[in-house]
Each structure stands twice: as C-alpha cells, then as structure tokens.
Design brief:
The complex is a heterodimer of chains A (282) and B (465). By secondary structure, chain A is of the alpha/beta class. In chain A, 28% of the residues lie in helices and 29% in strands. Chain A starts with a strand and ends in a 6-residue tail after the last helix. The mean pLDDT of chain A is 92. The chains are: A alpha/beta (282), B alpha/beta (465). The complex binds flavin-adenine dinucleotide (2 copies), iron/sulfur cluster (SF4) and FE2/S2 (inorganic) cluster (FES).
Chain lengths: 282, 465
C-alpha cells in the first residue's frame, strides 16, 4: 500500500502529501491524475498528480478538503498508508514546443502546474504561471512554483500580494502585451468557474487554451461513463479522453451542473463524519 | 433409478414482496432432499446431448448420478474438473439456452434442473470441504494475467494448478470483474466470489489490484522488466454504449455500468456508512432487456424506486436476459414496455430528468442478426414520466490496453483477435479470452476461454500437452 512519507499543511484546508508509489512515479506525465480510496467502503476520488519523481518513487498530491473523503485523506499522517491508489490515469498534456506557455492555477490546481511547467521549461518553452487566491496566505507553493517557471505572477482579491484582482484580469493584461511575449498556449487548472473565466478571456484572441476537467468519476478507466462531458458537441469521457480539453469547446454549463448531482448526499456524508469523527481504523 | 416426473423441482425462493426491498439472494438453494429428488429425474440417456449444450462440456449425467447416489464429493470433483466456477455458473448461466435446452426431457416435460443441481453441489463443496492447503509454485516460469474477471481468474487458477507462478493484475480495487461490479448480490452473493478468490490465493496466485496495464505498466514491461514468460489478456468488454439521443447527459441518467458499480462495487445501498451515493428516484426506466437491464431495474427497486420500467425496442421474444431473471422481475413488479424506442430524455430547468420520450415500434423484416427489425410507428410518440434513465444497451472492449500495445490485432469492433481453441493472439506468448475477444458474452464462455488458454500456455512453455 502506498505510504505517506511527507505531509505539509499548505492552508488550513489544503494538504500536500508525498507518497511512495514507484509504479505511478515511473509512468506519470504532467496532466495525469490518480484515484485514491482511503478506507473500506470509501469513495474513489480523483486527484491530480502535482509532481512525481521516478528516481525516488514519490508522487506528490495536493488535497483540498471539501467533503468527507478529502477530509479523511487530509487527516492522514506520515507513516500511514493510503488504502488504494491507482494511476496514472488520463492523458498527458501535449503542447507544440517552443512557445510561451501560461499556466493559470487556482486552489489545488496551482499545485498541478508544478510538474507541467518544469517539464515545459526544461525543454526550452517560455513559461509563466499566473496563480490566484483570495488572500496572500491562501496562495499555495509559491517558492516551489517560482522555481519551475520563468515568471510567477501572483494575484490576490484584496491585493495583499501581487496583482489586485482575478487571474483572468492579469491574464488579459498579458494577452494585451504586458509581457515580453504574448502567450502562445494557456493551460488552466482549478475550480470550474475559474477555468470557464479563463476560457472566455482567451476566446476573443483564439489563444489555444486547455482546461483540466474534474467531473465526478468512479473507475477512471472508461468503464462507467459517469465522467462524461460535452466538448464541441461530442460526448467525451474525461477520464480516458481527457482530463484536458480545448477550453473553447467545453460545455461548462453542463459540466458544472453534473458535478452538483450529489450535493445533498455529500452534505449528509460530511455531517455524518462530523458527528462520528474520523476513525482511523474504519 | 430414474423416476419420470414432468416438472422441475422448484427452486425455493424468497417472496417477491420481501426480496424486492433488500439485496439478499433471491434463490435459497435446494436442500439435500430437493437435490436428491431432482437428480432422480435425470434419465441417464445413452446420448447425453445436454453435454453438447454446455460450453465447457460438464459430464452432466455423471455428476447428477453422483448426486442421486449421495456421493457429493464425487459430484463436486466431476463438476470442478470441467468447470472451475460451478457455484457461480449454477447461478448465472443461461441454462435454458444451453444444457437444459437440449435435455431429452424437454420434448415432453420440463428439463432436468441442471443449473440448480450444479449450484447445489458447488455450494455443498464450499460449505462442507476445507479450503485447499496453501501451495507454492513448482515451475520457474512466471505468467501474468491481465484482468481479474472470470476469464482471467480461471486462467490463473489452471496455471497455478500446473505449478506456474501467476500474477493477476486488476485495474479496480477489488478482483472479480463483472462478477464484482456488475452482477448484484441478490443473484450472486459476493461471498461466493470471495471464496473462489481465496481458493486461487491458496493455490499461489498473486492478485495485484490497482494496476492498469497500459497505464501503470505496459504490456511490454511485463515481458522486458518483469520477466513474465507469457501473458493472458482477460480485460473484458467494459466500455458502456450510449444511445446518442438528446438529454443523455442530464442529471439522473446513468450507464448500467455506473449504476451497478455504484451499488455493487461501491455499496451505495449502504450510504452513508459507505461513502458513494446513488440517487434513485421514484420512477426509473431502464433501456434494454438483457441480463444487465434486469439487474439494473431490480437493483433500482431495491434502492427504493416505486415504479420500475423496462423499455425495449424489440419484443419479449428477442429479449436476451435469462428467463429466470425475467420471471423474477415480473414477480417483483417490473413493468415491461416492449416495442418501445426511446428517442429523447427530457429534463427540468435544473437539468434533472423528468421523462423519457418514446415511440412505439412494430416488428418488420429480419435484420442482420436474424431478429425481426423493429420499425417505428409514425405519430406514436409519448412520454413516460421518470426520474432516472439507465442505459443497458451493451458494452464493447476497453481500448486502454490495446491502444498502448503494439502488434495486437483487433477486429473492427475493437475485439482482440485470438485463436478459438488456444486464445493465441497475433503476438507470440500473448493469449486472450473472454469478453475482450468475443465482445459481451457470458461467464461460462469467459471461464472456458481462460481454461483453454491456460492449457495452450502450458503446451507453449513446456512442450507438454
Ligand atoms: C481529474 C480530477 C483531478 C482532480 N484533482 C484534484 C486535486 O489535485 N486536489 C483536490 O483537492 N481535488 C481534486 N479533484 C477534485 C476531487 O476529486 C474532489 O474534490 C473530491 O472527489 C471530493 O470528494 P469528497 O468526498 O471530499 O467531497 P464530496 O462530498 O464528494 O464533495 C464536496 C463538495 O465538492 C464538490 N465536488 C465534488 N466533486 C468535485 C469535483 N470533481 N470537482 C469539483 N467539485 C467537486 C461537490 O459539489 C461538493 O460541493 C480532482 C477531480 C478530478 C476529476
Ligand atoms: C450486469 C451484468 C449482468 C450479467 N449477467 C450475466 C449472467 O447472468 N450470466 C452470464 O453468463 N453472463 C452475464 N453477464 C456477462 C458476464 O458477466 C461477462 O460475459 C463476463 O464477466 C466476462 O468475463 P471476462 O473475464 O471476460 O471480463 P470481465 O468480467 O469484464 O472482467 C475484466 C476485468 O479486467 C479488468 N481490466 C480491464 N482492463 C484492464 C487493464 N488494462 N489492466 C488491468 N485490468 C483490466 C476489469 O477491471 C475487469 O475486472 C453479465 C454482465 C453484466 C455487465
Ligand atoms: S456450466 Fe452452464 S451450461 Fe454447463 S451444465 Fe452448468 S449450467 Fe449448464
Ligand atoms: S470515471 Fe468511469 S468512465 Fe470515466
């Protein structure tokens, strides 16, 4: 079973884990994800592979606690194991080399830019990360991300650090020429409303933009079809056809509606967790 | 001595009004008295044609004779030699179109209850005989099996018995394939599957879950980095089809795979004690009329649906479900809408399903499959008010593995090309069987293919036959 070797609390609800998973670390590529289950009877939840290192066999995941399963995961400590972990799933992000790639990150999505931007920069792409949060203390992995790209642009809603405003406003400025190079590619990973806003920002200029879709999933292998989304009028399974898709062709309305399918049940699960507490044996 | 009695000894079953609210097994199984009584009905024919109907050639009259003679250990041995999964097949084989269809008794009476007897003997074996002593491999060669469905599990068991070191790689977190995630507890208790898997473990088979060949490891790595001498591919046909009609992505529409996986693999019936939810409304429509459709609609009732509808564009005659499941579904109150073609799923402003728009059909000329082609009746559209729509219209092989492996020949439909008697694929030392080769079929065909491939792998590696 994959053992947690390191845990860092990034914000009160965001935890980073480095986990021993040599097979996944060896075959992972930027943009892929994995699925974990943290207890018997537990749900299978997808998490982006934020970073991986084939040499050490370690995989990094960053988890934002939003419900029962992410809370249980967030409560695990180094030395403990994750019951099930399967991956890498989905396709790697493929971009034509040599361009200026702007990665836009929000929430746990910023972490997912780690391995992507490092790989792109290594092969000679020009790389910018635009990441945002409400306040300075909610920005994740600032030093780590600064180290893997050419420019790091921070945005906060209250202006406590960096640009005051949304990532999309800063992205607009980059597109308008406030940067040594206009973006050739944009990759947005984060909450769906943010990805949608990024899609709208790049649409008028037609800059190729990828978004990492995160619908509800079960198997992650194409077996259930629960992860289906509509892209350019065609039904796709996000787990095997994605998770990254052309932002300008994704039907965000439908995707956002579908992730709300179990809101009431999710609240019930959370309530139960709160009354019973997290039992490590269970 | 055989006794001529017209009717099958009925299978004791739980009353429909009770069983349709829980997931416990419907059939209760024969008692010893039932089994002995039914076994006497077998005529021990000179030409036991029933055997021809069995895809794995179980010596049917012999094992039934052993039951009649009270020799259950003998019956169990004969069964298991031919069929490595008798407790499962006794429950899920379509006997009415296999062994029991050919039984000589059918001409004038009801056939011998071969399936019920098979189940009885296998259950006796599971309850009354000890698990085999743990064994370790005696041969040097390692063999990898991809997929822990019936094809892969049977192949692994046969190879382990021959002394090979076998590792089974399974994508999901639990082994069993469709037997785990598809066929519900009320037809096939997981306890039976778990017992079969425990037997395999004792035979020395190593089962590694959470490994997807083609993603976690490549097929080539199994040979080059792990030193496996041969590989069996039993990856099934797990990719669900959708109709492509408007409204299919509304909230409350599921593939049967998703619907059943949430229930069986993820235990949604135990929510919130188990974490995976499944929202089942008051009225559920399942599209299709195979085993998958019956399992989905009967599961929907057990999850609380008050109205359970099957919608099928052909007629009762063309339905592919096992007859027993069909009868059980009728008893439990499932309503069948034959010659009804779904054309659109309707939803409300929030995107939840409210209805299924259908069109009436009539039967026309036979189509390519030999079945009468359903033809739409103009102006017959109507709406069934429903809260959920579940699609059980078929599955195809999952391309995950094939896409990442070179040199594996496939058919137009995405099935692996493999020799029927050996499972040999277009690549040396790679064998395949089950739904991955045939497309969605049956447990016994998958099991038979796994067994034949194991023999062929053994012949290939050892030169013995
Ligand atoms: C490909 C992919 C990659 C992902 N990567 C990460 C990651 O790196 N880190 C991370 O923290 N999370 C990631 N997610 C989201 C994560 O899987 C969900 O947050 C998780 O399933 C929630 O489970 P839960 O039981 O804790 O909460 P639940 O009780 O299931 O949900 C709680 C709340 O979260 C919302 N929610 C549930 N699922 C999703 C979802 N898939 N997307 C958006 N909102 C959702 C619900 O609507 C609800 O309001 C990813 C999802 C996908 C599909
Ligand atoms: C709901 C339902 C009801 C059915 N009822 C009946 C019935 O009553 N009677 C009957 O005879 N048949 C029935 N069938 C059909 C029967 O279950 C199948 O024909 C049979 O399970 C096929 O066996 P298999 O081993 O080929 O594949 P599967 O059972 O599909 O198993 C394949 C396994 O391989 C795994 N896998 C796939 N790809 C990979 C990969 N790349 N790496 C690792 N693992 C992988 C899958 O996760 C799965 O566990 C039913 C099917 C369904 C869906
Ligand atoms: S395995 Fe299936 S076909 Fe063969 S005898 Fe048993 S029930 Fe009949
Ligand atoms: S998660 Fe099941 S098909 Fe994508």
């Amino acid at each position: 079973m994959p053992t947690i070797v390191e845990k860092r609390v990034l914000t009160p609800i965001t935890k980073l884990f480095r986990v021993e998973a040599p097979l996944i670390a060896r075959s992972a590529r930027p943009g892929q994800f994995l699925i974990v289950r943290v207890r018997e009877g537990g749900e299978r939840i997808p998490l982006t592979i934020a970073d991986y290192d084939a040499a050490t066999g370690l995989v990094t995941i960053v988890v934002q606690e939003v419900g029962a399963t992410t809370r249980r995961l967030g409560a695990l400590e180094p030395g403990e194991t994750i019951l099930d972990m399967v991956g890498p799933l989905g396709n790697a992000i493929e971009l034509a080399p040599g361009g200026h790639v702007v990665g836009v990150g929000g929430g746990f999505g910023s972490a997912a830019l780690l391995c992507l931007m490092r790989a792109l920069r290594r092969r000679g792409d020009h790389t910018t990360i635009v990441m945002g949060a409400r306040r300075a203390d909610l920005l994740l992995l600032v030093d780590e991300l600064r180290a893997v790209c050419d420019h790091l642009e921070l945005c906060t809603d209250d202006g406590s650090v960096g640009f005051k405003g949304f990532v999309t406003q800063r992205l607009q400025q980059l597109i308008d020429g406030d940067s040594p190079r206009r973006p050739d590619h944009v990759v947005a990973i984060g909450p769906m409303p943010m990805m949608r806003a990024v899609a709208e920002t790049t649409r008028p200029t037609g800059i190729p933009t990828l978004v990492s879709m995160d619908p509800v999933m079960i198997d992650g292998t194409g077996m259930c079809g629960g992860c289906r989304i509509t892209v350019g009028g065609e039904v796709k399974f996000a787990c095997v056809d994605g998770p990254c898709f052309d932002a300008h062709r994704v039907d965000f309305d439908e995707a956002m509606r579908r992730t709300k399918m179990y809101v009431r049940e999710q609240e019930a699960a959370l309530q139960r967790l709160e009354t019973e507490g997290i039992c490590h044996a269970g | 001595m055989p006794v001529k009695r017209a009717n099958k000894t009925p299978m004791p079953e739980r009353p429909a009004g009770i069983r349709s609210h829980d997931f416990r097994e419907v059939n209760e199984g024969y008692s010893l008295a039932h089994a002995a009584f039914e076994a006497e009905r077998c005529l021990r024919c000179q030409d036991p044609v029933c055997i021809e109907g069995c895809p794995v050639g179980i010596p049917i009259p012999d094992f039934i004779h052993a039951v009649a003679a009270g020799d259950l250990p003998g019956a169990a041995r004969q069964l298991r030699e031919a069929n490595p999964l008798p407790a499962i097949c006794g429950r899920v084989c379509p006997q009415e179109s296999q062994c029991e269809m050919l039984c000589h008794m059918v001409k004038r009476f009801r056939p011998v209850a071969i399936g019920h007897l098979e189940r009885y003997v296998a259950d006796w074996e599971r309850m009354e005989t000890p698990l085999p002593e743990p064994r370790t491999p005696t041969r040097a060669e390692k063999i990898a099996v991809i997929g822990a469905g019936p094809a892969g599990l049977v192949c692994a068991g046969e190879l382990a018995r021959l002394g090979y070191a076998v590792t089974v790689y399974e994508a999901l977190h639990a082994p069993g394939g469709v037997l785990r995630y598809g066929i519900p507890e009320f037809r096939l208790p997981k306890e039976i599957l778990d017992w079969e898997i425990e037997v395999l473990r004792r035979l020395g088979v190593e089962i590694v879950c959470n490994v997807i060949i083609g993603k976690t490891l490549t097929l080539d790595a199994l040979f080059d980095d792990y030193g496996f001498a041969a590989v069996f591919v039993g990856t099934g046909a797990g990719l669900p089809a959708f109709l492509g009609i408007p409204g299919e992505n509304l909230n409350g529409v599921f593939s049967a795979n998703e619907f059943l996986t949430r229930i069986n693999l993820m235990r949604a019936y135990d929510f919130p004690a188990a974490d995976t939810p499944l929202k089942v409304g008051r009225r559920v429509a399942v599209i299709g009329a195979g085993n998958t459709a019956m399992d989905a609609i009967r599961s929907a009732m057990r999850m609380g649906a008050e109205e359970a509808l099957i919608v099928y564009r052909r007629s009762e005659k063309e339905m592919s479900a096992r007859v027993e499941e069909y009868h059980h579904a009728i008893e439990e109150g499932v309503q069948f809408n034959w010659l009804t073609n779904p054309i659109e799923i309707l939803g409300d402003k929030e995107g939840w399903v409210t209805g299924l728009k259908c069109q009436r059909m009539r039967l026309g000329e036979p189509d390519a499959s030999g079945r009468a082609r359903p033809v739409p009746i103009e102006g017959s559209e109507f709406v069934l008010p429903v809260d959920n729509v579940v699609l059980a219209i078929g599955t195809t092989p999952n391309p995950l593995l094939i896409k990442t492996a070179s040199g594996l020949e496939t058919t137009r439909r995405g099935c692996l090309v493999a020799e029927e008697t050996t499972g040999q694929t277009s690549r040396r030392r790679i064998y395949a069987g089950g739904d991955a080769v045939t497309g969605a079929a049956t447990v016994i065909l998958a099991a038979g293919a796994g067994k034949r491939a194991a023999r062929a792998i053994h012949a290939d590696l050892s030169g013995e036959h």
